[in-house]
Design brief:
mainly alpha
């Protein structure tokens, strides 16, 4: 090893060589950690996007369901009104018949 590398000849040379290997390994581990962090951020964003999408889908389904409920209520109200009209017509017919029977013209 040369003096410019910071290592000297002798018993420390082996330690210096191991130190370089450790530093290189740490740098490699750091690079892997950075890559994993980026990957995890991408996963988190994708997950958040899916959650937002599912929430939007749920809200849309809920809205459709509510619209169906409102439509059903309108239909029920209309049906009830028709039933009431039928009852009034029948009552009028019965009243007309009664009046005709008891008070002929």
């Amino acid at each position: 090893m040369s003096a410019s590398s910071g290592c000297v000849n002798g018993p420390r040379r082996e330690i210096c060589g191991r130190g370089k290997k450790i530093i290189l390994k740490l740098l490699e581990d750091r690079r892997k950690i950075e890559e994993l962090t980026i990957y995890l951020d991408e996963l988190r964003m994708a997950y958040d996007g899916r959650v937002e999408q599912k929430i939007a889908m749920y809200q849309a389904e809920r809205k459709r369901h509510n619209l169906k409920d409102e439509e059903q209520k309108k239909e029920d109200t209309l049906a009830n009104q028709f039933d009431l009209c039928d009852e009034i017509i029948q009552d009028n017919d019965a009243l007309r018949s009664f009046l005709h029977d008891y008070f002929p013209h």
